[in-house]
Design goal:
The chain is mostly helical and 115 residues long. Helix content is 76%, strand content 7%.
């Protein structure tokens, strides 16, 4: 519950700031991908509102950060998978040993009863 309240106290002001930013930066900016500034441009330019450019790169940064984090944690996930499989294998061995012990106990009790 505390995490949720703290999350709202962080998320709500951030959303308000983003909305105010979008309203304040509605003017058009020219976007072009022609580094040589040739006339006429090799790649056509287009005009879009500034806040869309900023939001696009903000979202792109979040996605790239998530991918970088996921890739950097690959060794940890692999190690966790290894130890999980090893624990499962050891649990299977322990279960097999217990069932063998129970089977031997039954055989021993049958031998004692027959004598």
């Amino acid at each position: 519950m505390t995490k949720r309240i703290i999350g709202w106290f962080l998320l709500l002001p951030m959303c308000i700031i983003l909305i105010v930013f979008a309203l304040a930066n509605r003017h058009l900016v020219k976007i072009g991908f022609d580094p040589l500034l040739t006339q006429p441009p090799l790649v056509p330019t287009f005009e879009i509102p500034l806040f869309i450019v900023v939001y696009f790169f903000l979202i792109l940064g979040v996605i790239m950060g998530g991918i970088a984090t996921w890739v950097s944690q690959g060794a940890e996930r692999r190690q966790k998978r290894h130890w999980r499989n090893k624990a499962k294998h050891m649990q299977n061995e322990m279960d097999a040993a217990k069932s063998l012990e129970i089977e031997n106990a039954h055989q021993n009790s049958n031998l004692l009863e027959s004598n």
